Amino acid sequence: MSITIKIRNLSRHALPSYATEGSSGIDLQAYIEKDIxxxxxxxxxxxxxxxxxxxxxxxxxIRPRSGxxxxxxxxxxxxxxxxxxxxxxxxxxxxINLSHHSFTVxxxxxxxxxxxxKHEKVKWNP
Length: 126
Description:
Number of strands: 10
Largest sheet: 4 strands, antiparallel
């Protein structure tokens, strides 16, 4: 099953896509004019140039990339980050550097992945 999501890509990169047939997450790339250095134990917000119109009844979750976490200590701070269906702003990724060394984000680096989920609304029964 698949859904169609309206997307605007203001970056110079290709639209985000699945790396393999079995992938559940779609890699997101940094869209920056100059490198961003994340010192040890600090965080930075990284723009992607991507805007989406997620349908009502769905949400998108931002998750870390395991390779960045394993090899560089870089992860998504609010993991998973939720993008609600009524959000229309640019998708930006909040990265944190948990290593002992500075990390440099370059334009086009794959910095996170996005997974889209269907969800149900809750009605409380007090």
